[in-house]
């Protein structure tokens, strides 16, 4: 199969590497917008900026220039950019016949739309879906065992994604609940910031378990209110990715929480990552959608106030602990 991945950050590159190492022998193009980075990757056969030391399989070709040329004969296109660039790319790719899947996890800043809602607005005729689930780029690029979920309402798109990417080191499960999968991917990033804060303040393992359990409840409440199935949140893109991102030190969102707990300001924390931390941009939109639906999300609300500088790290925790007792739901 011919596969083109747009965006050569950590995750786009890791997905391109995984596809190129697939036993079916796919031809994979990795399109990078930065000409210098593309040349460097082409010459060194690795992504020195985002995944140094991990060699590309021979089936991976780095391309630059007009992206529409790079997708022209692709049988599958994967958009590997952050959420902020999704709209622009869906607009550019709107006339493609091949299925298009995005990797970004978040709600669009400003509009508060989920990725598939952005697609419905700008490219309604596109055959599309989301790839999500617990998957640090470094581990997938090393072919360490991982599992993803391919979410689409179109069974043909799910089938193409499984056929293209399911391999001995990567299990890809299909799910038609794209709302649930995308809410899980967006909200777990916000909860990972809270978890990093909790661990940075050394509140203990009990506190972290409580935080993540209540975080999962918030995620599920919002998802169900938006039309998702509750059982999706017990799966890879819900509980699975929450566990990984909130406890795994490879997470950039978790790192933001740890850095804020250490006293660093938000701008410096974000700058020091060198990668996108989507929770920083999605937290407000997640909360705004919850508020519009009358869904209570106290942890997400606290993360927003923390990011806005309205509450200091230690106060944030007190605010959650001082809430009135309630029934567990
Ligand atoms: N890194 C990871 O382990 C995982 C990341 N994700 C999600 O994947 C998305 C991308 O994350 P990363 O690759 O880690 O980010 P990153 O920060 O490593 O790289 C982002 C890349 O996107 C490129 N980019 C930005 N705007 C662009 C545009 N308009 N056109 C083309 N390229 C553009 C940048 O040049 C950079 O190469 C995020 O939404 C993230 O939440 C999902 C699962 C795992
Ligand atoms: O989504 C991820 C793992 O599934 C990556 O999380 P971070 O963006 O927090 O690193």
Helix content: 40-55%
**Which ions, cofactors or small ligands are bound in this entry?**
1,4-dihydronicotinamide adenine dinucleotide, 1,3-dihydroxyacetonephosphate
Helix-and-strand structural type: alpha/beta
**Can you write the helix and strand succession as a string?**
EHEHEHEHEHEHEHEHHHHHHHH
Unreliably modeled segments: none
Q: What report would you give on this structure?
A:
By secondary structure, this protein is an alpha/beta fold. The chain has two domains: 2-176; 180-322. 50% of the residues lie in helices and 12% in strands. It has 15 helices and eight strands. It has helices spanning 10-20, 35-44, 67-71, 86-92, 115-122, 137-141, 155-165, 178-200, 205-225, 236-247, 252-261, 266-273, 278-292, 298-307, 313-321; strands at 2-6, 27-31, 60-63, 76-79, 100-102, 128-132, 146-151, 170-175. The protein has an eight-stranded mixed beta sheet, with helices on both faces. α8 (178-200) packs parallel to α11, α8 crosses α14 and α13 (278-292) packs across α14 (298-307). It is globular, with a radius of gyration of 19 Å. The N and C termini lie far apart (46 Å). The mean pLDDT is 97. 1,4-dihydronicotinamide adenine dinucleotide binds next to α1. 1,4-dihydronicotinamide adenine dinucleotide binds at residues 7-12, 33, 50, 80-83, 85, 88, 103-106, 135-137, 275-276, 278.
